[in-house]
């Protein structure tokens, strides 16, 4: 089966040690996590993990089942890129003198939709949001022309294109089950 | 104002256990759990604490107890080495879905992370091998954590839970109010019946010409033995069992076709690759059952009844999954399936049974000359108990031979380390089994290797007078490894020969009755002596030194490629 990039989205309780429990599942199957981002979700008390990995669908489906099994995980899903609106953000630190020597910056700023976050006599910090390929392209361009002092890229954040809102549907189902118990 | 209702955390802890119905604990004290042991002193009328000789003994005993009783096994140990000594048993319980609550002491919260004396990251170490591992750092969390621990351990697919309790939480005063847990929003242990899945499975079963059912421990864990019988009787489907599914059906049940897998019976293994519909009931297609997956039941439509969604399609592609507790899904299926008989199909098993009988079983169970075989010992003991005993095994040849030749007449009679294959399981698990089922005969079959891994527990058996019947099948070898060396490693017997102690002297030192058998003629009398009363007993049987377990699906072979001899 073909390996491609999958995005796993995990909704969880906000408890200590959950990230470790999730990464154990990747480690056991010797799968690299490509990117990872964790933040509170839209619903108070629920955290959202966005994880990307290269894998086959067969394996990613099993990984998601194993993640789901952990007690404090509410639900996890996997998607391919075409099902998602996704974004990463990158910061580039560049020596000011080198950047100025390059000449006019307007073309580059327009072409790459760059924002300038900080500028002083020593360095400039540029910000670019985009897909991996886009932030990578700018990194390569800057490396070749002016050199990059520091570079950092965030993990992916993603939102599904589907009309179904999974988290709220899931919470509703959980409510129903809880009421059944009572 | 001073609140007079406050009690110590350690006291709250014991009261929480009592609220969960705990009456038996296997444990070993130490510094970081001393307040809990101190509180236990006041509750000795309500809780029977059994002091083992090693924490591994305590955890395996808790496993044995849980397996025969269906209750949650409880193990209480201290921090650091006390906790790490339980890891093997925790992993074993995880793989074999045994409900356990393991309580480990921990250094006081302010010392956490400082490499304090006997501090170890228990939650971190046990997270991969538990359903849930949680550190209690303050007394207010104790009742909540205990309630949650028991709910998680026993519900859904059961498993081990670790509660790591910091010493300060044991000392702190706390208001005690106990609320049992029956709901965790992120944990849905039982899938409600999905009608379409039942319909789909029933339609496959109704059109099957050559169906075969595979019975696993899920039937035992769900307490669904009766439902299984009803299902099989109505559909007339022949059924075989996995190692842990051993006692889910009586051995002499007319549709019981025997043991699956590497050292299982020939017919059910061969028929796995001939059937048209394979119905897996609470089993997980372990590699010891399936052999080469690429050549496993490829011709069959697979129906998989399981409580754990993560098991569906994990190893074998499933055409019709049926999610849920088999106690619920089997009756739903029974309503939808047609009464049927499969006489011709069942008759076709006979040729393989005959083949296996001629080539293997007859000479293993009823040898007329030569050294004593393991098989004849197992069968004689089984029959001497009228096939009513609980079978406990260690791991290796003793385990496979016991699974093959011990007969069952009632459920929850099979206690063995299936998934992890833990040598040293046999003695402590038998102790726990006897404590959990005091009215039953508990026979534990051990090799000379495994017996010596945990034989310090003879001290526990002596002190508590636990009436287990320990059988040592002594071949002076690590027999299973020796068998593989003979078959696959050019008879290079690398570190498998054992010089053993005089087991009778050891039994004597622990004041446990014992007999050693050298000749076939002595066997019946020795077994009768062992079973004459309910006291602990060690029976040492010197068996053939180079005995082999056959038939066998060699590693990597497919289930239809069984080997009968070497």
Mean pLDDT of chain B: 97
The helix/strand class of chain A is: alpha+beta
Q: Pair with the most extensive interface?
A: A-B, 21 and 19 residues
CATH architecture descriptor of the largest domain in chain A: 2-Layer Sandwich
CATH fold title of the largest domain in chain A: Alpha-Beta Plaits
Total beta strand runs of chain B: 20
Could you state the CATH homologous superfamily of the largest domain in chain B? Thiamin diphosphate (ThDP)-binding fold, Pyr/PP domains
N- and C-termini, Cα separation of chain B = 81 Å
Fraction of helical residues of chain A: 25-40%
Note poorly predicted spans of chain A.
none
What CATH calls the topology of the largest domain in chain B is Rossmann fold
CATH class of the largest domain in chain A: Alpha Beta
Distance between the termini of chain A: 46 Å
Uncertain regions spanning at least 5 consecutive residues of chain B: none
For the record, the CATH architecture of the largest domain in chain B stands as: 3-Layer(aba) Sandwich
Helix and strand content put the structural class of chain B at: alpha/beta
- What is the CATH first-level class name of the largest domain in chain B? Alpha Beta
Description:
The complex is a heterodimer of chains A (182) and B (566). With 182 residues, chain A is of the alpha+beta class. Chain A has two domains: 89 residues, ACT domain (Alpha-Beta Plaits, 2-Layer Sandwich); 67 residues, Alpha-Beta Plaits (2-Layer Sandwich), CATH 3.30.70.1150. Chain A contains six helices and nine strands. In chain A, strands 5, 6, 7, 8 and 9 form a five-stranded antiparallel β-sheet that branches. In chain A, strands 2-3-1-4 form a four-stranded antiparallel β-sheet, with helices on one face. In chain A, a hairpin with a 5-residue loop joins strand 2 and strand 3. Chain A is elongated, with a radius of gyration of 20 Å. The relative contact order of chain B is 0.11. Chain B has three domains: 170 residues, 3-Layer(aba) Sandwich (Rossmann fold); 156 residues, TPP-binding domain (Rossmann fold, 3-Layer(aba) Sandwich); 171 residues, Rossmann fold, CATH 3.40.50.970. Chain B is globular, with a radius of gyration of 24 Å. A six-stranded parallel β-sheet of chain B has the order 3-2-4-5-7-6. Chain B has a six-stranded parallel β-sheet with strand order 11-10-9-12-13-14, sandwiched between helices. Chain B is an alpha/beta fold. The chains are: A alpha+beta (182), B alpha/beta (566).
């Amino acid at each position: 089966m073909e390996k491609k990039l999958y995005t796993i989205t995990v909704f969880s309780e906000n408890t200590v040690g959950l990230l470790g429990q999730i990464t154990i599942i990747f480690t056991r199957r010797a799968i690299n996590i490509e990117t990872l981002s964790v933040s509170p979700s839209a619903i108070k008390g629920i955290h959202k993990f966005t994880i990307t990995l290269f894998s086959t669908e067969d394996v990613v489906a099993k990984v998601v089942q194993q993640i789901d099994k952990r007690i404090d995980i509410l639900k996890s899903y996997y998607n391919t890129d075409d099902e998602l609106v996704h974004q990463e953000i990158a910061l580039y630190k560049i020596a000011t003198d080198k950047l100025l020597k390059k000449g006019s910056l307007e073309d580059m700023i327009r072409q790459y939709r760059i924002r300038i976050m900080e500028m002083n006599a020593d360095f400039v910090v540029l910000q670019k949001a985009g897909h991996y390929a886009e932030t990578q392209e700018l990194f390569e361009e800057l490396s070749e022309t002016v050199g990059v002092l520091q570079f950092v890229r965030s993990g992916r954040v993603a939102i599904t294109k589907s009309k179904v809102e999974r988290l709220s549907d899931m919470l509703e189902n959980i409510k129903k089950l809880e009421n059944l118990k009572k | 104002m001073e609140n007079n209702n406050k009690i110590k955390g350690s006291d709250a802890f014991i009261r929480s256990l009592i609220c969960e119905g705990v009456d038996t604990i296997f444990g070993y004290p130490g510094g970081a759990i001393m307040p809990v042991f101190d509180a236990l002193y006041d509750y000795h009328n309500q809780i029977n604490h059994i002091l083992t000789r090693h924490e591994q003994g305590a955890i395996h005993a808790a496993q044995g107890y849980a397996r025969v009783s269906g209750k949650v096994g409880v193990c209480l140990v201290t921090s650091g080495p006390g906790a790490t000594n339980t890891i093997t048993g925790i992993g074993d319980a995880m793989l074999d879905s045994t409900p356990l609550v393991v309580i480990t002491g921990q250094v006081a919260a302010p010392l956490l992370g400082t490499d304090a004396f006997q501090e170890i990251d228990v939650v971190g170490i046990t997270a991969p091998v538990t359903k849930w591992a949680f550190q209690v750092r303050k007394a207010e969390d104790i009742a909540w954590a205990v309630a949650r621990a028991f709910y998680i351990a026993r519900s859904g697919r059961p498993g081990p839970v670790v509660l790591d309790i910091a010493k300060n939480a044991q000392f702190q005063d706390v208001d005690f109010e106990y609320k049992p847990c029956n709901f965790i929003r992120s944990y849905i242990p039982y899938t409600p019946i999905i009608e379409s899945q039942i319909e789909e499975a029933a339609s496959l079963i109704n059109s099957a010409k050559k169906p075969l059912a595979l019975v696993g421990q899920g039937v035992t864990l769900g307490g669904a033995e009766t439902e299984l019988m009803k299902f099989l009787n109505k559909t007339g489907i022949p059924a075989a069992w996995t190692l842990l599914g051993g006692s889910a059906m009586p051995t002499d049940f007319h549709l019981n076709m025997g043991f699956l897998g590497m050292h299982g019976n020939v017919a059910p293994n061969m028929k796995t690759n001939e059937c048209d519909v394979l119905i897996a009931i609470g089993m997980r297609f372990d590699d010891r059952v399936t052999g080469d997956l690429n050549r496993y039941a490829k011709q069959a439509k697979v129906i998989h009844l399981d409580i754990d969604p993560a098991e569906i399609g994990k190893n074998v592609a499933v055409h019709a999954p049926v999610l849920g507790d088999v106690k619920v899904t089997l009756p739903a299926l029974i309503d939808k399936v047609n009464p049927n008989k499969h006489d011709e199909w069942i008759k076709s098993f006979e040729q393989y049974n005959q083949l296996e009988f001629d080539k293997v079983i007859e000479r293993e169970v009823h040898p007329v000359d030569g050294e004593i075989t393991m098989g004849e010992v197992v069968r004689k003991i089984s029959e001497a108990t009228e096939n009513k005993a609980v079978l406990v095994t260690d791991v290796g040849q003793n385990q496979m031979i016991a699974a093959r030749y011990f007969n069952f007449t009632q459920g929850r009679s099979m206690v063995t380390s299936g998934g992890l294959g833990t040598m040293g399981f046999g003695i402590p698990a038998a102790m726990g089994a006897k404590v959990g089922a005091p009215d039953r005969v508990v026979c534990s079959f051990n090799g000379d290797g495994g017996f010596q891994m945990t034989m310090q527990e003879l001290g526990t058996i002596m002190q508590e007078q636990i009436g287990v019947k320990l059988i040592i099948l002594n071949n002076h070898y690590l027999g299973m490894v020796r068998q593989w060396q003979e078959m696959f490693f050019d008879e290079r017997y690398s570190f498998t020969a054992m010089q053993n102690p005089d087991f009778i002297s050891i039994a004597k030192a622990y004041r446990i009755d014992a007999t050693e058998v050298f000749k076939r003629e002595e066997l019946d009398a020795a077994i009768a002596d062992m079973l004459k009363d309910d006291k602990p007993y060690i029976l040492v049987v010197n068996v053939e030194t180079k005995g082999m377990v056959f038939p066998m699906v060699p590693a990597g072979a497919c289930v239809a490629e069984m080997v009968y001899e070497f």
